[in-house]
Amino acid sequence: MENSSLTQLGNEILSTARNELYLSMRYLDVALAGLTYEISPLVSSSATDGEKLYFQPRYLLSSFEENPILINRAYFHNLLHCIFSHLYLPGKDKSGLWDLCCDICVEFILDSLPYPCIRKMQSPIRERTYQYLEDKVTLYTPGRLYHILEDSVFYKENGLLMEQDFHIDTHEYWPKKGSSDNREQQQKNKSKWQEISDKTKTNMETFERRAGTNAGTLLQSLRINKPDEYRYDYFLRRFAAWREEMQINDEEFDLSYYTLGIDLYRNIPLLEPLEYKEEKKIQELVIAVDTSGSCQGKPIRRFLSETYAILKNSKRFFRHIRIHLLQFDTIIQDDICITDMAKLASMADSFTVKGFGGTDYRCVFRYISEQQKKGTLSRLQGLMILTDGYGTYPEHPPDYPTAFLLADFLKEDSPSRILPSYEHVPSWAIRLRIEESLADE
């Protein structure tokens, strides 16, 4: 078959696949428009770089002859990698296992959807894999699966079969870790797919309210898996307060009049520079860490390390700062007052968990109220609580900003298999998910 005829036939097959996906899942309209497809002999099966979807012509034809659903699934498989920004995640040392975890995540979603255009029987190794993971994780993400499979006997015994079954595409066009090639284009693609992911989630929620989507796993994954490296930094800005700090205000200082006075009258400027400038910075902050149940010290230390890095680099603190680092379960287990960034850095390296009881957030608010009455917390700008969201909340909001940082990785080893409780967080509080990468990078 001539190349032109092969290309034309391949394009027709892929157009059909895209149309079938759209007709079954109208909420994918924006995502399906995010990739153009191309027939390429340079790939072994299918692949994507975030801009195009590539199919090897012989693979495309043989798969279509065997079962057209295989093409639909391969198309959707690559599309889900983009929607969840798997291409732009930092990855792990064992790249083969990391690629497998990304593939398992999207294949699990495909297998959970009820649409005939992507349904196929599960292989024995796929069924065993899902059964093995069933009591260890509820919502699949690459980081969680990597953590579970890395040293598992199951992966050591079945890794080859798992790779043969779950590897639908190749990841050779994904951005290489540490590579600076086309960095600007990669960032554009990443931003594009984050926006597409948001729109897809909104579309699904709209369809769900109107007629039901029957796509609970995909929608739940879209709600939880939203990588955004700027969210935590933005959150800290929410806890800032206006205060005057002695420094020259360059924005209001007119240098022309100042220099004119020096020239005319030597040492007598016409306008003195303003010595005071209002700046939005954090002065006093409480960080409360939920140390109930099976919370582990390692992810908490990573969270503190990330907090230190953001505050150190962003220059959002005054020269004189105070951070109260609390540990709590049903009572306050510890209160460490930090007045310099070096101490916060050392805490990130040597944090010891105290607690392991139940979870009662009210004890944190009571403790803060007591400290405010004593004058210990006279300039409190906000409270942020690192937790999984399960516990007893106060009935009424406090008079300072409060954020619940919902960290699913805190109880990853817990047999209870519960996800962060987003719906239980009061409406008056800020709700922010802390990414799993803080726990296991």
Proportion in helices:
40-55%
SSE string, helices as H and strands as E: HHEEEHHHHHHHHHEHEHEEHHEEEH
- From the spread of the alpha carbons, the general shape counts as elongated
The total count of helices amounts to 16
What is Rg?
27 Å
The largest sheet, given as strand count, sense and whether it forms a barrel, is: 7 strands, mixed
Terminal CA distance reads 48 Å
- Uncertain runs are 226-230, 241-248, 412-417, 437-441
Beta-strand portion reads 5-15%
Structure report:
There is one protein chain. The strands form two sheets. Strands 4, 5, 6, 7, 8, 9 and 10 form a seven-stranded mixed beta sheet that branches. A three-stranded mixed beta sheet has the order 1-3-2. The chain has helices at 3-24, 29-32, 57-66, 68-83, 95-112, 124-134, 142-149, 153-166, 183-210, 216-224, 231-238, 255-265, 297-314, 341-350, 362-374, 437-440; strands at 36-39, 46-48, 52-55, 241-246, 276-290, 317-328, 332-338, 382-387, 402-406, 430-433. Helix 6 packs across helix 8 (153-166). The two termini are 48 Å apart. Helices cover 46% and strands 15% of the residues. The chain has 441 residues and is an alpha/beta fold. Strand 5, helix 13 and strand 6 (317-328) form a beta-alpha-beta unit. It is built from 16 helices and ten strands.
